[in-house]
Amino acid sequence: MGIITIEELPARLAGGKTLAGLDLGDKTIGLAVSDQRFSFAHPRPVIMRKKFSLDATVLLALLQKENAGAVVIGLPINMDGSEGPRAQKSRAFVRNMGQMSDLPFVFWDERLSTVAAERTLIEMDFSRRKRAGKIDSAAAAFILQGVLDRLQSLHASARTEPDPPSAA
């Protein structure tokens, strides 16, 4: 399927599908999944990275189990708006996943998502060791929640926009 925009997501999520969020780390893949009403992001256990083919097989099995209709992936953009090597790795990951699955992917600017996730885990009094095992899934939940909030906003603005004038 490839890459789609946020505006194209609703058409892909009909029929009880969920939306998944990913945060790619060097050692783990953080995963979060929405509820069917697209209100909340729920973190799932991280996937320990081994090699791409194994990671992709595990990820696709989990996405199927969660009934995901699309996947949001964090795009690590630099603070100045440029894309560096980590963003290139995320784009390559999506290209490679496209060869194994028809699931559509959406990129989402993930600047500061890991920082926000870590602050939240600290506030919840997680030890440093426990945070290390949860940080990528918490970041995936932050990324996914951002998209869910955007979808809600798009839906609300579509309901409140006046109809275009009809030609008389």
Automatic annotation (TrEMBL):
It is found in: Cytoplasm. Keywords: Cytoplasm, Hydrolase, Nuclease, Ribosome biogenesis. Pfam families: RuvX. The keyword Cytoplasm applies. InterPro entries: RNaseH-like_sf, YqgF, YqgF/RNaseH-like_dom, YqgF/RNaseH-like_dom_sf. Its EC number is 3.1.-.-. The keyword Nuclease applies. Residues 17-117 form the YqgF/RNase H-like domain. Gene3D superfamilies: YqgF/RNase H-like domain (3.30.420.140). Its main location: cytoplasm. Could be a nuclease involved in processing of the 5'-end of pre-16S rRNA. Belongs to the YqgF HJR family. NCBIfam families: RNAse_H_YqgF. This is Putative pre-16S rRNA nuclease. It comes from Mesorhizobium calcicola. The gene is ruvX.
